[in-house]
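Milestone M4 deliverable, item 7.
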Amino acid sequence: RLYRRDLAKLQREIRLSATPGFSSYTGDGRQEIYATQNDQSTHLQSQRALLIQGTESLNNASKSIERSQRIAAETDQIGTDIIEELGEQRDQLDRTRDRVREIDHLPLLLLLIGLCRK
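Output delivered:
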């Protein structure tokens, strides 16, 4: 008879301890609550650390994008300046070529003038 009573008591304790948040002993219940709160706190700290890390990564990426945009704008300005300078150099070369052609034709022109005077 005592054996069955002890067995029933143990079975009840096992069922209660298998149910989350319940325990047959008051001290164990508190310990379980504190353990759950500690787990939640640890989880929140972990999430907070991940959030901070994600924010830092986002800030770094934003700064990198800003630097890239600034460099692209500077490169665009340099390219525009180079194109303008090359255009000016082309005009100068065209004028020089025209002068050289005039000079090449000068002896022929002088000869023709000389022939016309005779």
